[in-house]
Amino acid sequence: MKHNPGFLKRVDAARAQVRECSVSEVKARLDRAESFHFVDVREDREFAEDHAVGAIHIGRGVIERDIETILPDKTQPIVLYCGGGYRSVLAAESLGQMGYTDVVSMDGGIKAWRAAGYPIEKDTSR
Fold first, then answer.
1. How would residue 20 be classed by pLDDT, with cut points 50, 70 and 90?
2. 70: which DSSP letter?
3. Which residues are listed as membrane-spanning (predicted)?
4. In what helix (H) or strand (E) does residue 115 lie, and over which residues does it extend?
């Protein structure tokens, strides 16, 4: 998907405010059984199609509204991802503004996760 220039400018501005990590760093954290929340911020249909094993879903459209109910401890580590690493950057910036102190965006999103051959699953609850 080709993104619009205004969107890319907005993402670049947000990227300067957030931490990012690679898919291999996230996989290593999962392999070490580190405690963190792995959050897919894509749309419902995207999450249902497939997602990283162990991820929970809080869509980008509702994350600011729902995050404090789902993850009330603002100090717990959170790794966000989306399709390609754009929406998760915006979500990470927003959560930082809301007082969350340990939020990271996974660079490359689910596309990079799939390309690396890391485990995915379908949402069977729908």
1. very high
2. H
3. none
4. helix 109-115
| Per-residue confidence (pLDDT) for residue 27, from 0 to 100 | 98
Instruction: Locate 40 and state its tokens.
Output: 């897919």
Q: Per-residue b/e over 94-116, b at no fewer than 16 CB within 10 Å?
A: bbbeeebebbbbbbbbbebbeee
Q: Quick one: tokens of 65? A: 């509204």
* CA 124/CA 18 separation, integer angstroms: 32
Q: Tokens in use for 54? A: 């162990």
Specify the residue for token string 């497939």. Answer: 50
Fold annotation for 20-121 = Oxidized Rhodanese; domain 1 (3.40.250)
Residue 90: which H helix or E strand, with range? helix 87-97
Cα pseudo-dihedral 14, 120, 116, 80, rounded to 10: 20
